[in-house]
Design goal:
The structure holds two protein chains of two kinds. By secondary structure, chain A is mainly β. Chain A contains no helices and eleven strands. In chain A, the strands form two sheets. In chain A, strands 2, 4, 5, 9, 10 and 11 form a six-stranded mixed beta sheet that branches. In chain A, strands 1-3-8-7-6 form a five-stranded antiparallel beta sheet, with no helix packed on it. The radius of gyration of chain A is 14 Å and the shape is globular. The N and C termini of chain A lie far apart (41 Å). The chains are: A mainly beta, B mainly beta. At the A-B interface, strand 4, strand 5, strand 9 and strand 10 of A face strand 4, strand 5 and strand 10 of B.
Chain lengths: 112, 115
């Protein structure tokens, strides 16, 4: 079957580093995306990993290991504005190109 | 426009009524998507359009749900005979194409409440 798992909540202090893991069981896995969603807001794209390894975009980095069916999003130098839900999403070659399957999201709470 | 827009932002309806939700994608985006998000849940894929055709309708929960897209632009999601379990935020997104890695740009959503 298809499944996507990520922790429900992570709490950290300002300035800290947080790693949000995402494990998947997806036939024909093609790639992993990350989106940020503030409370009551629309999801916004953060990163995409189509190949194994690390992708860095400013304070945020994303990693993928296909052999482990696992990826993570790393948030560095946490700021209060980073308090949000972070959603991982997978694509599969067995689906249409347009279909993304999203995880339930990880709520990151940043404290002073 | 500058971003994806959706209307209405909020819709309250009675069980059994039909509702129409509208999405205006970013100009030039050929791919359009509808998702549903229930309280505290992730996004549930509903349907994907490439141009005016829908290659993937696999996420529509029942035949009460339908969607169309005209002129390669505006899309309407229609829910007939609404049920209380249809209550959710309905999100629309668009992208330049439907290929892998193409960033999806989301609208603010329509919050549907079925009484």
């Amino acid at each position: 079957g298809q499944s996507l798992e990520q922790p429900s909540e992570v709490t950290a202090v300002e300035g800290a580093i947080v790693q949000i893991n995402c494990t998947y069981q997806t036939s024909g896995f093609y790639g992993l995306s990350w989106y940020q969603q503030h409370d009551g807001g629309a999801p916004t794209f953060l990163s995409y990993n189509g190949l194994d390894g690390l992708e860095e975009t400013g304070r945020f980095s994303s990693f993928l290991s296909r052999s482990d069916s696992y990826g993570y999003l790393l948030l560095q130098e946490l700021q209060m504005k980073d308090s949000a839900s972070y959603l991982c999403a997978v694509r599969s070659v067995t689906w249409s190109w347009g279909k993304l399957q999203f995880g339930a999201g990880t709520q990151v709470v940043v404290t002073p | 426009g500058a971003g994806v827009s959706q209307s209405p932002s909020n819709k309250v309806t009675e069980k059994g009524k039909d509702v129409e939700l509208r999405c205006d994608p970013i100009s030039g985006h050929t791919a359009l998507y509808w998702y549903r998000q229930s309280l505290g849940q992730g996004l549930e894929f509903l349907i994907y359009f490439q141009g005016n055709s829908a290659p993937d309708k696999s996420g529509l929960p029942s035949d009460r749900f339908s969607a169309e897209r005209t002129g390669g632009s505006v899309s309407t999601l229609t829910i007939q005979r609404t049920q209380q379990e249809d209550s959710a935020v309905y999100l629309c997104a668009s992208s330049l194409g439907g290929g892998a890695g193409n960033e999806q740009f989301f609208g603010p959503g329509t919050r549907l409440t079925v009484l």
